[in-house]
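WARN retry 2 of 3 for item q-0093 after timeout on previous attempt; input resubmitted unchanged.
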Amino acid sequence: MSTPAHQQMVFVNLPVNDLDASKKFFTDLGYSINPQFSNEDAASVVISDTIVAMLLTKPFYSTFTKKEIADATKTSQVMIALSAESREKVDELVDRALAAGGSPANETQDLGFMYGRSFDDLDGHTWEVVWMDPSAVQG
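OK item q-0093 returned
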């Protein structure tokens, strides 16, 4: 596989009920808001150099789709998975999410070479945080 000419980015667009509460939730997790791409209808949450979560008010989100907006507290359409550099970093991020008002989503997975926990954000979107032993990936 060839190396891409540019670094692709991932923008995850999420409908939210309360933009200010969602912004606080994600900044409590240690992420920053990019004001250049934020306004009263949207907040650009910088997860990493290549991952951005766009928090969109439901009326604004609805301008991008003809589909009904799912209630993420009742249905699941997507799970967002983030890698972590260690087991401790998995626990640190998930514990911060829970302290900021998130809720546990699934049982902790500990396979020795892989460790993961998950949480639901304020709107019910599921986030998984996973660490994998680099030696297990090298094959």
